[in-house]
Amino acid sequence: MATMSDDMLVHFSSNSSNQSDQSLPTKIAKLEARMVGKASSTVTTTLSSAQQSTWSSVPSAAKFGGPAEDLVGPSTSSDSDDDNGGEFLIQANTQKRQKLQEDDHSKIFEHVEVVTDGRQTSLDVGEAKVSADVNRKKNGRGRGNSGSGRGRGSRVTDQTRTQFSPPAVLASNGQLDIACHREGRLKDQIRNDSCTSLEEENESLRAKVVAMEEDLRKAKQEMSDYQNLSHQLEKELKDLKDHEQQMKPKRTKIISDLLISVSKSERQEARLKVRQDSLRLGNVGVIRAGTLISETWEDGQALKDLNTQLKQLIETKEAIERQRKLLKKKQSDKGEGADADTVLQEDEVIIQDEIYKSRLASIKREEEVIMRERDRYELEKGRLIREMKRIRDEDGSRFNNFQILNHRYALLNLLGKGGFSEVYKAFDLVEHRYVACKLHGLNAQWSEEKKQSYIRHAIREYNIHKTLVHHHIVRLWDIFEIDHNTFCTVLEYCSGKDLDAVLKATPILPEREARVILVQVFQGLVYLNKRTHKIIHYDLKPGNVLFDELGIAKVTDFGLSKIVDDDVGSQGMELTSQGAGTYWYLPPECFELSRTPLISSKVDVWSVGVLFYQMLFGRRPFGHDQTQERILREDTIIKARKVEFPTRPTVSNEAKDFIRRCLTYNQAERPDVLTIAQDPYLTYSKK
Ligand SMILES: Nc1ncnc2c1ncn2[C@@H]1O[C@H](COP(=O)(O)OP(=O)(O)OP(=O)(O)O)[C@@H](O)[C@H]1O
């Protein structure tokens, strides 16, 4: 039997390989002849394994989308039983069953032969089709799809061929009968099995359709639920927005009411503190001289007590000095034959003098303590006087009743008053942040021309300032008109003091603190000088350096700034507003009268040099005690050729050299902002 199977295989193989030579009727005839000697179980088994190997690369269940057992048949049922072999054939080829059922027996053979001849091609196509089937199934297509029939057909072919490939020679009639009988049984079997399988398949497809319909229904339901939810959310959002819109004025009102009550209590507190401090430090009194009423300062009790102590110390010191003189006189009288009783022994004189000297030394120490305390009180007195002035200005301001400007800026308390402006702390109700509102008041008495000139000036300042965005430059947020005579600029709020107030409270800063302020101011200046159109600030002074709540220094007030034109020469641009500015801080070239001065960023370098000197030594380098008018009259700055440094406090030579470079008299030799910004004194490195 084994030999026979091998023969069959050899034959079968040669058939397959010569498929193109075989005509269809010849093949059918050959097959019919072979049918007489029906294949043995060995053949079936062999071909079953051939079939298995053909399909092994594709997972059976995946290929067909059906239960795996659909394809299991061959290995278990093909051992020796022909019927079982037929069963395997049918079970493994459900796709082709319908066709088999329709065709007659010869057609089956014909089909088998045709495909057997084209075995290789058919198998390939079959595999491709199976893959396509798998894809289709993945896409939810039915497995009864006619397209899949061919692929499976090829397998049918193989199996049919297996079943029906006869031995090369069949001899007896008995064997033929058996073959015919088996053929009949096979046909029935095929028909029955085909029907059952189709029904099963139909049923499973129907079940699938039902399941898919259920899925679809659920998906539709979900979609409609989501749509409802989305509509509901949209409606809720709209309601919330409407509510928000309605609540906005209420919320704004609540915020401004809260701010107002905080500001009111701050005002009360400020006034109470002024009253308390006045008792210690002094107050403004009124003096009447005939019809003339003038104001004068009267020191408070603490200052009076200090002055009394100081007076007493001075009196004691003078008394001791007198006693010392007397002692010396007695000593000198001794030599001139004075009364022996009144003459002191030499050692007694020395001891007595030592006592007086020691007392004088202790008086000096007490005096120094009192003087330091008095200086501290004087500083406090200065702060008190400024606060009194601020309160007075606030009380006299027409903006002191918590107005909301331009529908968004809630005015709170007055920060201070400048030449032509009042600066209020305010709250921006739109951006929800504190701002400083600078209210520029035009004097109603001014001519229309002067008013227009002032407004032009302010708009120019605004146009320069609004484009400046830098960490060390105060931001300008907004500008608007309040009435015909007043307009407002809105600035970044700096809650710390300005440098002027800092220096009034502590006139001398440690070099380290002064240097870091200097560096920040230069960073702002470098920004101004790296723009397409450079800007000269022209009014750098302690009052124009502000500090935010973190102590970051910021340059402000661009009222006198100059935009440097593109075509300006190396010497600088013409100074058209000579006479403006604060003279202590301006360089010599700004005072030149013989011709229109040419200026550049070197003006700002000079000003920062003065500022730095003042921070370190507690006084300005030129004309410190002079008024603006006297500086002009006495040409103080024109004469400021060389800077002198006090011996105290001790300041590093690097700092002094830096100041000398900033205060270089000759403009041509003085470094500009970008050059001096490279100075080692301004650079920090980790040690
Ligand atoms: N952005 C700001 N944030 C906080 N306080 C400010 C701000 N701008 C100005 N101030 C304060 O308001 C007060 C008045 O400022 P303003 O600039 O009007 O006065 P000034 O510089 O003394 O006067 P002038 O502008 O006439 O030179 C000052 O005490 C100043 O510190």
Keywords summarizing the entry:
six-stranded antiparallel β-sheet; Kinase-like_dom_sf; alpha+beta; Protein kinase domain-containing protein; 687 residues; 58% helix; disordered N terminus; coiled coil; binds adenosine-5'-triphosphate
Helix content: 55-70%
- Which structural class is indicated by helix and strand composition? alpha+beta
Task: Choose one word for the global shape.
Answer: elongated
Number of strands: 14
What kind of sheet is the major sheet?
6 strands, antiparallel
How much of the sequence lies in strands comes to 5-15%
Low-confidence regions = 1-22, 36-172
Q: What Rg, in angstroms, do the CA atoms define?
A: 55 Å
Number of helical stretches of at least 4 residues: 20
The N- to C-terminal Cα distance equals 99 Å
Task: Please give the order of strands in the largest beta sheet.
Answer: 3-4-5-6-8-7
Bound molecules: adenosine-5'-triphosphate
What is the average of the pLDDT values? Answer: 77
Organism: Acacia crassicarpa
InterPro entries: Kinase-like_dom_sf (IPR011009), Prot_kinase_dom (IPR000719), Protein_kinase_ATP_BS (IPR017441), Ser/Thr_kinase_AS (IPR008271)
Keywords: ATP-binding, Coiled coil, Kinase, Nucleotide-binding, Serine/threonine-protein kinase, Transferase
GO molecular function: ATP binding; protein serine/threonine kinase activity
Describe this structure in words.
The structure is a single chain. With 687 residues, the chain is of the alpha+beta class. The chain has 20 helices and 14 strands. A hairpin with a 2-residue loop joins strand 1 and strand 2. Helix 2 packs across helix 8 and helix 11 packs across helix 13. The longest helix has 109 residues. The chain is elongated. The N terminus is likely disordered. Adenosine-5'-triphosphate (ATP) binds next to strand 4, strand 5 and strand 8. Keywords: ATP-binding, Coiled coil, Kinase, Nucleotide-binding, Serine/threonine-protein kinase, Transferase.
